[in-house]
Each structure stands twice: as C-alpha cells, then as structure tokens.
Amino acid sequence: MQTFAVFGNPVEHSISPRLHNKALQDLGLDALYTRVLLEDGSKLISKFRALKLDGANVTVPHKEYALKLADEASQIAMRSGSANTLVLKNDKILAYNTDAPGFMRAIVPFGKIKTALIIGAGGTAKALSHALKDNDTEVTVINRSKERLADFDKEFECYCWDDFKVKGYDLIVNSTSAGLRDDSLPAPIEILEPVIKQSNFAFDVIYNQSTAFLNLAQANNLTCKNGADMLLFQAVLALNLFYDSSLDEAKIEKSMREIFKL
What we know:
This protein is α/β, with parallel strands linked by helices. The chain folds into 2 domains: about 1-95 and about 230-260, Rossmann fold, CATH 3.40.50; about 100-225, 3-Layer(aba) Sandwich (Rossmann fold), CATH 3.40.50.720. It has helices spanning about 15-25, 45-50, 65-70, 75-80, 100-105, 125-135, 190-195, 210-220, 230-240, 250-255, and strands at about 1-10, 30-35, 55-60, 70-75, 85-90, 90-95, 115-120, 140-145, 155-160, 170-175, 200-205, 225. The strands form 2 sheets. The chain has a 6-stranded mixed β-sheet, with helices on both faces. Helix 1 (about 15-25) packs across helix 10 and helix 5 packs across helix 6 (about 125-135). The radius of gyration is 18 Å and the shape is globular. The model has no long low-confidence stretch (mean pLDDT about 95). This is Shikimate dehydrogenase (NADP(+)).
C-alpha cells in the first residue's frame, strides 16, 4: 500500500485527505492519504522520510521549504519559488507546483485577465504571480512588509501598504491566510475597499468559508470565487504526479468533485 499526506500548519481544516481518498477508492488504487501537522518547516523532508511516504502535498506556511529541501524541482516550481507537491522517485524527493496550473484552470470563467493585484508575498503568491505573467497578465503585488517583496520586485510592480497607489484591476487575489481563522482582511480596508470598487473579479485561495475579503467584494458587486476549484484542480494534478502521470485526470476530477457536493 502506498501512503500520501498533506503537511501544513494549520492543517486540520484541509479536505485534501477526503479528495484524494475518494479518488483513490474510485480508481481502485491501493493507497491512503492523511494529514500531518508540521510546525517546523525545516523538518519537512526528514518527516516525509520518517513516515515512509510515497508523496505529499504541502500547504502554508511550508511551500518554500518544500522547494528548498527537495532533491530536484520542476521548472514551474523553481520559477514560482515554491512547491506544493512532493513525489518520491528512485529514492529522490522531487518537488512540483500544481497551485499555478490549478489556479489558472479555476479562473477560466473570468475570461481574459489583463491586470491583476496579488495580496501577499508568500509561496502561493509567487506561484500565482508567475502563472498570470505567463498568461500575459500585468501583475502588481502588495504586501505588509517590504522584506518579502524582495523576491518579486525584479519582475513585478510591488508595493507596501504605505506606498500603494489605489486603482482598479481586472482581478484581485487574496493569496494569504487572512480570513482562515477569523474575520480579518488581507490588507487594511482603507486600501481594499477603494480598489475593489474599481475592479471586476475577486478570488480567495481560502476554500472552506466565505471570508471577509470575499464578503467585501460581493458587497461591491464583484464576481467572486473562493479557492475550491483551485484546490480541486491542483489536487487532480498532484494525484496524477504521485502515479507518474499515468492516471486519467477526467476520472480524478469527477471523483474529487463529488466531495464538494457533500
């Protein structure tokens, strides 16, 4: 039997085990998928090997550790500066990023996105920023601290809260965990509200609740999506990577999508 897991902190909210176990069962694969609370990201690989895992997903705040500590990494993961999927192959741990393609599939209903504002400067923000840029989208990144923006400012227009210039965008994305545990916003409302009023679409990577960010966007008549489809699509891609891309992704998607109906 093969064993897979998701690492994160927090991780108790993750529905990845339900998604993957449903697909594994439906596809008749002898495997199980669980979750692991990991407080120290520097121990990610040692924990992976200690648990004798065949593959894993990595969520906040350990995606940058996943890339840094893996033996090898895909081009998308290296360009994104983070990884959310680890696969054991020939005793090496390979790092991939399925957040980026999963996100791009999720925003297809929005149509062509010419400009986007990414809130946050973590691993997820890196993946989404590069995915949008590769799709010819002009990307702006805003973050509370200037230090985290150092990884972005060579390729993207970057601002801290204090020097941000308010304007509208086709798409605003919350890539942070703000709103996951409480009603906090990813940026001060004095910044967010005027930007939202001038924008068209809002996307929150948080998938299991209606966040304060999305509530504010909906109150201002923006078309909104939470992170459910992004989670679904990145999970489909990750599970296929666990099996060396030998599975039928349409069957995986059909199986996993049923979980969201429960």
